[in-house]
Specification:
heterodimer, A: three-stranded antiparallel beta sheet, globular, B: 5 strands
Chain lengths: 136, 129
C-alpha cells in the first residue's frame, strides 16, 4: 500500500491525464463558473471536454491540504473527477487551484517560447500555444 | 448572441499572432488574458465587434473571429481613411459594455498587425563655412 506522498510522486512520474466529459464540464461551469474551462486544456473546437494532467490534480490537492488526499487516492482508482469536484466541500478551491496552476504553466510556456533559441522547441511550443488558445 | 467559432480564424492570422508573441510585442500576461477570455466562451453581438487586450485587439463579426490589430491601429471603416481626420465621424460606437468602443469591418482588409507608415527624417551635418 502506497503512502499519499508516494502515490503523488507516482502520479507525477507518469504523464497521465483525466478527461472531463463535455456534459460534466458544462454542469461544473453552471455551478462554479467559466473558470472550470481553465483547469486544463479545453477542447473548444471539438467535443468541449477538458483534459487535466493528474500531476496537476495532485499538486492542487497538496496545495489545498490533506483533506483531499483521500479523494485524490480514490481518483487514482478511477473515481470520477467531476464527482470529486462536486461532492467535495473543497471542490471550489480545487478548481481555483487547478486553474491557477494551469494558467501559470501556460505563462511559463509563453516565456519559454519567447526566450528559447532552439528552433525546433520554438515551433513545438508555438503549435502547442495555438492549440491551447484556439483549439485543434 | 452567438459564441465564437475559433476554427474559422485564418491560419495566417494565428501564425502572425505567434510572431508578435515571439517578438515580445505581446506579453505572456496579455496572451494569458486572451486565453481566459476565450475559455469564458463569451457571447458576441451578431454584428461587428472588437475586444481590446491592451497591446492588441481582436475583431470579428458575429461568430467569426477575423483578425488581430495592434493597439495603435484605429478601427475605421476604411483603412484608407486613417489619414483623413475629417472622416473621424465615421467611427461607430458599440453598445455592448464588455467590448471596446469602436468597430470597423473594412479594416479587416488591411494587413493584420500593420502599423501606420513611419516618417523618417535624415539630418545631414554640413561643416560651417
Amino acid at each position: 500500500m502506497l503512502s499519499l506522498v508516494e502515490l503523488l510522486q507516482e502520479i507525477e512520474r507518469n504523464d497521465q491525464k483525466v478527461v472531463l466529459p463535455p456534459a460534466d464540464v458544462e454542469r461544473l461551469v453552471k455551478r462554479f463558473g467559466p473558470t472550470v474551462r481553465s483547469i486544463g486544456t479545453w477542447h473548444k473546437t471539438t467535443d468541449g471536454s477538458v483534459e487535466i494532467p493528474i500531476a496537476n490534480i495532485a499538486a492542487a490537492a497538496r496545495e489545498i491540504g490533506s483533506r483531499l488526499g483521500e479523494a485524490v487516492e480514490e481518483l487514482q482508482s478511477s473515481k470520477d473527477l467531476s464527482d470529486l469536484l462536486t461532492e467535495s466541500s473543497a471542490g471550489g478551491r480545487l478548481i481555483e487551484s487547478l486553474a491557477t496552476l494551469h494558467t501559470k504553466q501556460f505563462q511559463d510556456r509563453v516565456e519559454r517560447f519567447q526566450t528559447s533559441a532552439d528552433t525546433v522547441e520554438v515551433e513545438r511550443i508555438g503549435a502547442d500555444l495555438l492549440r491551447e488558445l484556439f483549439g485543434s | 448572441m452567438p459564441n465564437i467559432r475559433w476554427r474559422a480564424l485564418p491560419a495566417g492570422v494565428k501564425s502572425h499572432l505567434l510572431d508578435r508573441v515571439r517578438l515580445r510585442q505581446i506579453t505572456p500576461a496579455q496572451l494569458t488574458e486572451l486565453l481566459s477570455w476565450i475559455n469564458a466562451d463569451p457571447d458576441v453581438p451578431d454584428a461587428e465587434w472588437c475586444k481590446d487586450f491592451g497591446s492588441f485587439k481582436l475583431v470579428g463579426q458575429g461568430a467569426l473571429p477575423k483578425t488581430f490589430l495592434t493597439a495603435e491601429l484605429p478601427l475605421l471603416r476604411d483603412p484608407g481613411l486613417i489619414s483623413k481626420p475629417h472622416r473621424k465621424n465615421q467611427l461607430r460606437k458599440l453598445t455592448t459594455p464588455v467590448l471596446t468602443s469602436y468597430i470597423a469591418p473594412a479594416i479587416w482588409r488591411a494587413p493584420f498587425f500593420s502599423r501606420p507608415a513611419r516618417i523618417s527624417l535624415r539630418l545631414r551635418m554640413t561643416p560651417a563655412t
